[in-house]
Amino acid sequence: MAASSSSSSQEKYDVFLSFRGEDTRVGFTGYLYHALRQKCIHTYMDEQLESGYEISPTLMKAIQESKIYIIVFSKDFASSRWCLDELVKILECKRNENGKHVIPIFYGIDPSTVRKQEQSYEAAFENQEQRFFDNLDKVQKWRRALKEVADLSGYHSRNFRFEYELVQQIVADVLSKLPKFQLTNYGHLIGIEENIKKIESLLSIGSMDVRIIGIWGIGGIGKTTLASIVFQKYAYSHFDGRCFLKDIPERADTYHLRNELLSQLVNNKNMVCTDTPAVGSGFIQDRLRYKNVFICFDNLNGSRNKLKVLLDGYHFAKGSRIIVTTRDKQLVQTVDGKIFELTGLSSVDALKLFCFNAFGQHLPATGYESLSKRIANYTEGNPLALEVLGSSLKSKGVKYWESALQKLETCLDPDIQKVLRISFDGLDDKGIQGIFLDMACIFTREVSKKYVESILNRTEHSDAAIGISALIDKSLLKEEWKWKWKWQWQYNSKGAVLKMHDLLRQMGQGIVFDENNDPGKCSRLWNVKDVCRVLERNTGTSTIEGILLNLENLKKDVEVSPTAFSNMYNLRILKITHIYAGINHIPQRVHLLNGLKRMHLPNGLASFVSDEIKYFHWDFYPLKYLPYSSTENLVVLIMRDSQLELLWNEDQPLELEKLKEIDLSFSKHLIQIPNLSRALNLQDIRLQHCTSLVHIPPFFEYLNKLRSLNMTNCKNLEDGIENLPNSLRDITMDGTAIKSLQESIWESKYLKQLHLSGCTNLRKISKISNHMDCLVQIVLREAEIEELPESIENLTVLQRLFLNGCHKIKFLPNSLCKLLHLRQLILEGCSSLQELPPLPHGLENLDIRKCERLKSIAELPSSVRDLKADECKSLETISSRGSPPKPHLFYEYSFMNCLKLDEDTRNNVIVELARLLSLPSQDDVLCFHHIIYPGDEIPEWLSYQTDGGNSVNIHLPENWFKLSFAICIVSNELDRETDHQYMKLECEFNFKTNTSNSDICLYKYCHEWVGFVFPGTIHSDHVFIFPIIKFHPKLSKVLVPYWSSIYSNITEASFQVSFKNGPIAKKCGFQFCNADKGFEELNGNRSSSNQPNGRRHNSDPLPHNNSKRIKLVE
């Protein structure tokens, strides 16, 4: 292997041709050489005539440096001592170096003639013996070599009707024998293997369609590198023609590009001159129709029809492939190509690539670890940036690195800037360039696509959606779809968000920096020092279009000039924000805000910024009102945590036709909702924690496009709810002083969410007269209501009903069972609730914790998979289900501290668990269920159990790794002062193999309940049962690469259980279960083991002493 490795590193030629020149040089061998070269097979063919007595050193070196030897045996081959010496040398190399191949060709001569040295070969050797009578050993070497090669598999020309068929067969054989593409030849390429596989999957080499694949991504991301590797791997070995047009200039002439493409494909430049720009040459079309080709257009950008024009008029043979690397995916989509988006390297691979360029190795040098990681993270996996920065920092000291990193945070490396700016310069539309600069300088965080589109329309005739779409297509913006969770009530929605690569953001900011040395004359401001200087010194000009200031970055209070905005006639976006503004649930908010550096306006504000303002966001605004001015272009108004008492010190309604969103949350001094009667396009109003508001004004009912209203904790708000428009989707009035829900609220046909938590004055829910076809969630947590109306059945699509903490409710309406879509019913803390009515058959989640007067559940629907009944001190019975539970990944039945629960109910719970364990499971999904109830005995059906202690030993059945299993624990009492504890179950498994070396593998499985409220006090022993599905595939992953050879040899195991932040385990048990067999059948098989009833006792030795361990912690 060492020789092979050594030789392969020195190999220069793919093929060495050995032949008798006078016989075949100008005929067969010449044709073969040409065919090999056409396939880009590097071939050595000696062009010199034989001269001298010895074979030349050049020829000997060429033999040593070749991978494959083609020996053309002809009539007079044996008469040439050169040919015979070549033959001996070839066989010597083949024997000494692995991977060499010899292909004999018998051209016009029979293999047996060569093998037996008959006819012309016999005569030739008679002459050789006469010439070398004093060195007959040499002649014998020749004879043996001829016989050895003649015995090899080769080609006989007489078996082929035409010579070209023989040549094609030989070329195909050579291609099959050449070493396949090795990525190890490209040691500097890191993290590219997975992308190669994905491109290969899209290309599907061998399928008989014609495919176009676009590799799409930002500059420097590695598109050309990926395309080049795939091209090198396949273009020469699988295709009749090929062309790689590298780094095509954006404004390259399409006609000349087309001619260059065709000249390479037909391998004749003179022929291509007959082609025309609009209609392809018929002659060339005919040639290409039967030729499968591999084409790569590298860095093709510009006109979106360019690719279509390049390919227009030509039909390539079946199996042809075309790769396009581009920054504009629309260019590929115009010809129905498939898109592969190339993204940055992972953090691990990014660090490796950076270190390779900085240190010549894949790990950081000592002392540079932290700096290397920071720089690798800064690039977000962009290979160009990693290579440029790594090379520039090579051999530099730590201080230089620290200085360079500090500079990078504000200024992009010029080489990286140059590559990335190509995409920006390719945007022909100035409006689209402006949107890019807005996103780079102002909207610097992840932001909703819809939101930005509504703000960035520059004129009545511009469409920001088109511009944003163009930026996404050109990889200057990235669009992602994300779930947005709202509060803790499991209400969520999916929407598109926009992100920008940090390097692109710096590139955009660099463009603005270059506009002018004076910040007041730049189009956008975002640097804290620049913004503060302009606002304090009143140096702003009409050039400024956008300002971003993050208040948390202020080092001191800023005193703003009253006329700071007076000259900013074109200001469209003002964004003065603080990360904690308008947020109530952060514990350290008060402390953070006490130390906040603020913007001061001691002399007031002369004007309301600019008539062009579309987005006005000023957190902690210090004045009592805004100056009156034109607001006709205003789309978004956000003033959280302001000192406002009135929004405008005017009674007259303003022109607010374009206003879509207003947020005045936490403006505690606001005494009146502003006159928004002309804001007829308003969609979202947020007034939460405006504690001085007392009334919803009448004009609200005319806001017919209003979708969302949030007035959480407007604790003095008593009336006006009847003024709400019917267009509302979401109403949130938690913590208000409203006393009743009037019938008008049920007239809103679009209403989806109604939140009235903590409304302690709310005692009555009015009759629901209309069918509500959209309302899916009602939250009445800790309201003072005493009952729900029977008309609740009109909430026909209600899915979630939260009544937790409604301590005055004694009964629920009997019509509750008619809510066929109800999935979640939360009654926790309904301490007066005495009984439950029949429940809906689709209910999945029932929470009755701390319902202290509830004695029984008459009928539990089979759909319920999550039943929480902790602290139900009076609960005695729960009826058995009429039908088995439905398959689901998660089940929970918890009866903690339900000490009156009768024996029948506990047995029903155990039967329920057995049903769950018999449900079908998915191989690759870890299902988790748990059941908790008062008790001190492990159920009998668990084959392995202890009378005391927290560990047990197991004999493993056949295919144990495919089985589900159940763990049971009996815990002791627990008394703690604090409630709301999170508990973690930890299970440690140890596996023993039956091999002689007795290697042991340790598999540690841990499961943590997130959000499980564990009582501070457990009043008696409790039984915890956890069925888990399955060991596989988690175990197989941790034991890779040993898994396939180990799992069948593992015969014994032990496991140990414990609670973290919970009670002490007194007893434990274990049971395998299988969905395909029942418990009885499985346990019956187990009972045949040497242990009675399948049990092992704690006295048996654990199988992991003095063992080798592999550990997984989840």
Structural commentary:
Among the domains are: 13-177, 3-Layer(aba) Sandwich (Rossmann fold), CATH 3.40.50; 192-271 and 280-341, 3-Layer(aba) Sandwich (Rossmann fold), CATH 3.40.50; 347-410; 415-515, Arc Repressor Mutant, subunit A; 928-1073, no CATH class. The protein has a 21-stranded mixed β-sheet, sandwiched between helices. It has a 5-stranded parallel β-sheet with strand order 2-1-3-4-5, sandwiched between helices. Helix 3 crosses helix 9 (163-177), helix 22 (430-441) packs across helix 24 (464-473) and helix 22 packs across helix 25 (502-513). Strand 12 and strand 13 (491-499) form a beta hairpin. Residues 1-9, 485-492 and 1075-1114 have low confidence and may be disordered. The protein is globular and about 125 Å long. By secondary structure, the chain is α/β, with parallel strands linked by helices.
Compose a concise summary of this entry.
The chain is of the alpha/beta class and 1114 residues long. It is 27% helix and 19% strand.
Tell me roughly what share of residues is in helical segments. 25-40%
Separation of termini?
Answer: 42 Å
CATH topology of the domain at 13-177: the name is: Rossmann fold
Beta-strand proportion: 15-25%
CATH class of the domain at 13-177, named Alpha Beta
**Radius of gyration from CA coordinates:** 40 Å
Q: Choose one word for the global shape.
A: globular
Q: What CATH architecture label of the domain at 13-177 applies? A: 3-Layer(aba) Sandwich
Mean pLDDT metric:
83
Return the structural class: alpha/beta
The tally of strands reads: 46
Residue windows where pLDDT falls under 50 for at least 5 positions: 1-9, 485-492, 1075-1114
Q: CATH homologous superfamily of the domain at 13-177?
A: Toll/interleukin-1 receptor homology (TIR) domain
Structure annotation, total helices: 31
The main pleated sheet reads as: 21 strands, mixed
